[in-house]
């Protein structure tokens, strides 16, 4: 595997899921694979889970790890070509990328959507420069439009919780309100992965929050949240800002603050005693109430723990292809 951005990069999901279980049962079995290999993790944005779980996965595989927080000690990086660099940015990404690549074998990048320019974000302008100019395999740790390590961990978590009497569980991705504009990367990847997985997938959100068709695919969209949640086996809550599909001018904006979408016990009572999922970090009281996230149906902690496993499978595959 040379890059990891989309579900297709992983090939057959059944094979990937059984590999995940094998790795989970014996996570130190591939120490020799990463010997004398270096992972460079570059963060343009904050992280708790991605940083810790990816570093842990790499060390499980015997790799050396370098972490760079671009905003904490590195030179501020210019990302556009053709600008006169007389502002606060001291270095250009076009020099920084090959320099950073010279110190490592694999590059993992976190670079969130700017949420101001839809074309810029959806063209993946930043991470594509890493792919083009590094000459090294590039792993997404949440880019402008995708968060595949999260979606893979979510799928592993769902597969570990079979629903009695059902071959295909009903999985519902529901928008929930939030006080700050958030990217679409998590719902985009979750939708992309659920569309390929062996599940019945429904997306629910207020009008105007339609995900880009490239990710929503043929998923059922139900604007009535109650109807969508009826009979659900997994409720995956997430806020996202306006994807600008119907109205480009609203891209990246908060166009609804409807608190009736917050997942509380009443919402969960409409489901088939569903499991609750969220990628974290989560703001309680906005996305989900304390009682729901603390309930015995909440999977948020096992989901986060599976980030180590999704990252290990991905890094293992990349190492095998070096
Ligand atoms: C980010 C997001 O919504 O994309 C990261 C989630 C993994 N969340 C926040 O910025 C709060
Ligand atoms: N879920 C997730 O990616 O968390 P972090 O932003 O803390 O890495």
How many strand segments?
12
**What's the level 1 CATH class of the largest domain?**
Alpha Beta
- What structural category do the secondary elements indicate? alpha/beta
Cα gyration radius (Å)? 20 Å
Q: What is the domain tally?
A: 2
Number of helical elements: 12
User: Considering the protein shown, what is the CATH homologous superfamily of the largest domain?
Assistant: Aspartate/ornithine carbamoyltransferase
CATH topology term of the largest domain: Rossmann fold
Give a quick set of tags describing it:
binds phosphoric acid mono(formamide)ester, 5-stranded parallel beta sheet, single chain, Rossmann fold, 35% helix, alpha/beta
Task: Summarize the model shown.
This protein is an alpha/beta fold and 322 residues long.
General description of the model:
- The chain folds into 2 domains: 159 residues, Rossmann fold; 137 residues, Aspartate/ornithine carbamoyltransferase (Rossmann fold).
- Helix content is 35%, strand content 15%.
- The chain contains 12 helices and 12 strands.
- The strands form 3 sheets. Strands 1-7-6-2-3 form a 5-stranded parallel β-sheet, sandwiched between helices.
- Helix 2 links the parallel strand 2 and strand 3.
- Helix 3 packs across helix 5.
- The N and C termini lie close together (9 Å).
- The model has no long low-confidence stretch (mean pLDDT 98).
- The structure holds N-acetyl-L-norvaline and phosphoric acid mono(formamide)ester.
- N-acetyl-L-norvaline binds next to helix 7.
- N-acetyl-L-norvaline (AN0) binds next to helix 7.
